[in-house]
Design brief:
This protein is 66% helix and 3% strand. By secondary structure, the chain is mainly α. The strands form two sheets. The chain has a two-stranded antiparallel ribbon. It has a two-stranded antiparallel sheet with strand order 3-4. A hairpin with a 6-residue loop joins β1 and β2. The longest helix is centred in the N-terminal third of the chain and has 31 residues. The protein is globular, with a radius of gyration of 25 Å.
Length: 315
């Protein structure tokens, strides 16, 4: 009887080990899956498809009509936005914005995650304060940082002047040399807690026995980090970077609140440029083309993210 009560096992792995048969899902789980897919189709799939459709058409915002009645222009909209004088600067800004944001978000987030792995007084309160900044809406964070970056009365300039690091106020948001970096600083501040949270979860999965054994073998802190922490965190870091690219490339609120892409497109990013073309100059087809190009980057990054998480489950 004891043997009969055991779950049926069958060989299913190359090493000959046994695994349980796949679980069969009931009607309730199936309905949850159907409803989730329907939600994604209605609120994400259809708008994305319609945006892609408009990028191949001639769209007149002043005379809207059904999609089947519009003229098809092929790749003309894509060629147009790529050949515009400001296009090169916008794409360079976008690449720099993503690269620097990810670099500092991941490095600072990783450092904070390692810090909060240690037990010290006030760690829980400090972690909560960091997470409180993450849940702040991007538009609200942009307004706060606009006050910090103000040239005449901003807190940042006051601190820099008091420390003697600068001799005169820096006009962060109206000077073409600093505007993009001001947006990057605000985005780093907004994204660090999210990276810290995900990386903390990854660090919690590493067995403490590995560190104890390495310490007994005489490995110092840096050697333990490079030989244990980094290899064990490779999949988590890949997923964090992939999610960071997706979240950064769709960051619109900070640009809208801080610089509106100025001055003279010095801080213009692709996502904000797409919105300006679509809703300010009413070049909807051109704006859709830019959004579609961004979608290609997001899909490619999503593939990397899925592969990273799949590898993490298999390891």
């Amino acid at each position: 009887m004891a043997l009969q009560s055991l779950p049926s096992l069958r060989p299913g792995r190359k090493d000959g080990s046994l695994q349980q048969p796949p679980r069969s899902y009931g009607t309730f789980e199936q309905w949850l899956l159907v409803l989730g897919l329907a939600y994604l189709l209605v609120f994400a799939g259809i708008p994305l498809f319609y945006n892609l459709l408009m990028s191949f058409q001639e769209v007149d915002a002043m005379a809207p009509g059904a999609w089947w009645s519009r003229s098809w222009v092929g790749l003309d909209n894509y060629i147009d936005v790529l050949q515009r004088p400001e296009a090169r600067g916008v794409w360079l800004n976008t690449g720099l914005f993503i690269a620097l944001s990810l670099l500092f978000q991941v490095v600072l987030g990783f450092g904070l995650a390692l810090l909060f792995q240690e037990a010290f007084l006030g760690a829980t309160v400090m972690r909560g304060l960091f997470l409180a900044g993450w849940i702040m809406p991007g538009l609200v964070a942009g307004v706060v940082w606009k006050l910090l970056f103000a040239g005449d009365y901003g807190v940042l300039n006051h601190v820099l002047l008091q420390l003697g690091l600068v001799r005169e106020s820096i006009y962060w948001l109206s000077d073409a040399r600093y505007a993009l970096y001001a947006v990057i600083i605000a985005n780093v501040w907004l994204g660090v807690p999210f990276n810290m949270l995900l990386l903390s979860a990854g660090l919690a999965q590493i067995p403490r026995d590995l560190y104890e054994a390495a310490e007994l073998d005489g490995a110092n802190a840096w050697q333990r980090f490079t030989s244990i922490t980094l290899p064990m965190m490779a999949s988590t870091l890949g997923a964090v970077i992939a999610l960071g690219v997706i979240m950064t490339i769709q960051q619109f609120d900070l640009v809208a609140a801080l610089t509106q892409g100025g001055p003279a497109n010095a801080s213009q990013l692709a996502q904000h440029w797409s919105w300006q073309l679509s809703f300010q100059t009413f070049e909807v087809a051109s704006g859709s083309a830019i959004a579609s190009l961004m979608l290609v980057v997001v899909v490619a990054t999503a593939v990397v993210y899925v592969r990273a998480t799949r590898r993490e489950r298999l390891v």
